[in-house]
Amino acid sequence: MKKFLSGLFVCASFILNGAQAQDAPPQYSATLQTLAQNEKATYWVNGVYGEMLRRYDAAVAETEALQSTLKVGCWTKDQAAQTAWLRAYQSWVAATSLVVGDETTASALRQIYFRPTRVSLIDEAIAQGAGRNATVATDEIGVAAKGLAALEYVLYTGAKTPERCAYANWLANELVVGAQQLNRATQTLVVQRQEALKNPSTRVPATAQSIEEFTNIFIGKTSEVLGRDLIKLSVIKKDAVLSPYAGQSKAILQAQLRAWQDLLIGRAGREGGWGYGFVDYLNNDAKQTKLAQDLQHKVAVAMRAVDQLPANFAPLAQKQPLPKNVNAAIDALQDVQLLLESEVADALGVAVSFNDADGD
User: Fold this and answer.
1) Which of 80, 97, 163, 330 is the most buried (most CB within 10 A)?
2) Among 6-10, 65-69, 258-262, which stretch is predicted with the lowest mean pLDDT?
3) In angstroms, rounded to a whole number, what is the distance separating the alpha carbons of residues 220 and 110?
């Protein structure tokens, strides 16, 4: 899990004021520094931060809606709780398609979607009356029995008992607390970064760092999806795949990759997509038209391949060889990753700090 989460964070110390910039100026390539001097680059960076805040707000709202639904009842005929769970999960994988922060942020994310969940720990907590019996020390329940994956197991398996429902409610309450804390921390960090972008003395280095960081995060997210959710299907156990109990593997992966697609190619990717994507920046501001076209094409091919994946990945666990449609998605995503970490990074003068091992 630690390696997976490190793939989400490609962070460096950020310049927040002129004094810091003077004390320890970061080193960027001449190409990147030149690009960062363009105010349009700062405009794009600001837009990405704004979209990040919007996604976090949406994820918190869906988590709160999940909490409210479970308070009404866990086992409703219209499966409202399961629908609310899926919407919350999809909102969080979309929000974390772009993550900035430190180890505190990583710790908060572990609380939200740690996987694989440990069902023995969940069963033990339920048997002890966690969430129902005030004498049970819930603060001793480990992260492997918490979060969205743990809630999936509770909602989709086992007997529909009051004890399980009480634990589901406790999990949702914990999720809301963690989500709100993570959102506040992210809001604070992003506001600091946006202030640095407004300050004439720090605008250029702040823009350069953001371009470099975002590029590395795009590479890291692609590698994470490949290694964690697709390539390893042939060797991992069923309970380690994405959404093994609800069978919503593709739906969650699509939500994650549509958010990734929007950041990369914006409105050009799909109707209703986010406005000014990485492709727009490459084409209009960085003057890399050919690369922009290549990236747009490869991302489109990758998304079509992902759409052909089976709905449930659980039957693919430890399956060798993997089906053709899975290998096609892997190949298409690898093409995107290679383009980003070689040609795009080189053209922007970005130092690639993401390592493939981080996404394992």
Assistant:
1) 97
2) 6-10
3) 17
- Rounded CA gap, 228 and 58, in Å? 25
156, 191 contact by CB (below 8 A): no
Q: Which residue has the tokens 């407004």?
A: 198
**Cα(203)–Cα(44) distance, integer angstroms:** 13
User: What is d(CA 45, CA 38) in angstroms, rounded to the nearest whole number?
Assistant: 11
Q: Report yes or no on whether pTM surpasses 0.85.
A: yes
Dist CA 3 CA 163 (whole Å) = 34
Quick one: angle between helices 249-265 and 203-224, nearest 10?
150
Q: How far is CA 199 from the centre of its chain?
A: 29
Angle formed at CA 99 by CA 98 and CA 102, multiple of 5 degrees: 165
251's tokens: 């739906």
Work out the average pLDDT over 225-253: 94
Is residue 98 very low, low, confident or very high in pLDDT (cuts 50, 70, 90)?
Answer: confident
Tell me 286's DSSP state: S
Q: Residue 200 carries which DSSP code? A: T
Q: Which helix (H) or strand (E) holds 300?
A: helix 289-307
CA-to-CA distance for 272 and 285, rounded, in angstroms? Answer: 23
